[in-house]
Amino acid sequence: MARLPRLPPGSQSGNATACIIDCGGSAGENHRGFYFHSAESYGSILDNVTIRNGYAAYGGGIYVSGAVAMDAGERLPGGFGQRYSRGVIVMHELGHVMGLAHVGSPHEIMWSPETSEAPHPDLWQTEWGPGDLEGLRALGRDAGCLPERDPSN
Fold this sequence. Notes:
Layout: E1 20-22, E2 34-36, E3 50-52, E4 62-64, H1 86-98, H2 130-139
Parallel strand pairs: 1-3, 2-4
């Protein structure tokens, strides 16, 4: 996979406080600093930058979106009963949308032959593995993925 350039170049010194992007937003006036949604990938890097005053209804100063497309011509079983079923493949691809990368353990949904010495995944693995779940927890609400919402609004 080709690495995309750093977005934006960021601080030359590696000090994020030396390169500040002020979005000029507030809770009442939403302004987002970045919206990654097309050619960006796991090779894209946004580092050595401080983003301030980025607000949006969801996503904050940086928002990343994704989609899953499946080939309707593939002859895969439906449901979640087999490793190579539509449901388990959608789980794997949604893992990428959420920010998970490929892993080497054949006992994880995010297994890939490109990152593993194991030539095949565990064919009985049809649920998130412990490493998958650990990665999803690290990306979730407790990690600041989504702001707490006021239930009265």
